Amino acid sequence: MTDEPVLEVRELRKEYRVRTSRAEAVPAAGSALLGHAVTRRERAGVLVAVDDVSFSVSPGQSLAVVGESGSGKTTVARMVVGLERPTSGTIMVSGRERSWRHVSSRERRRRAREVQIVFQDPYSSLDPRMSVRASLDESLRLHFDWTRERRDERVAELLDQVGLDRRQANSLPKALSGGQRQRVAIARALASEPRVLICDEAVASLDVSIQAQILNLLSDIRDATGVSYLFISHDLAVVRQVSDAVLVMRRGRVIEAGPTASVLSEPSDAYTKQLLAAIPRPGWKPTPSNS
7-21+43-124+196-277, superfamily in CATH? Predict the structure, then answer.
């Protein structure tokens, strides 16, 4: 591995313009007997979703970004993959800064090849009308000028890589289980041979046993390809299994960062301690309600 980061984020910030409403009593037209009408006056405001976030990911490294809902972790992922435009800050992939000026279609395809994302819900990320083969072939046609025969070979290789039977190439998403659909989504993301794969709560909707299978699969893929992961999660038990380093976010800011083993064994921030305390331990049982 080289020391140069494959992904580097510096002082990333994302603001959203929001409108807040305030009820005001205004005299009604006509007689005072009609009382008062209530109208609403809107005011512009700013919501800071991500505030001064910096980190880097080395080739082959897995960095987890954790935090509660609304902490800004998914917004960071969407900016890295290009689905959101940062308000300020820098994103560099393979040493190239991702400018937000006019970008050609060729440049968009190149960026898409380098960074791919796997979402939480595999069913919504796959076209229900397209077979597994057609879905993977579409991605290959977008990124490579290959013959049909070469694409068919690559589809078979991708199915092998994610642990699916080649006979499932002709299946529609509705014929697959949740775990199988997520394997297809991972195969589709891998089709472009990305440098960085973002997993945005990629196992959160799966049963625990299937989660373990998918996490083992992701580990095997990293060992085989050297791809780097940006793993977005709220689950520290999952993070412990998949990441080399962890970034803890709260209210848009990074509050703690470091090697996973260090952060999870000796957290310095009270919020990280709260997240760790919420992980069910062996033998844990819910406290009975007194109601």
Answer: P-loop containing nucleotide triphosphate hydrolases (3.40.50.300)
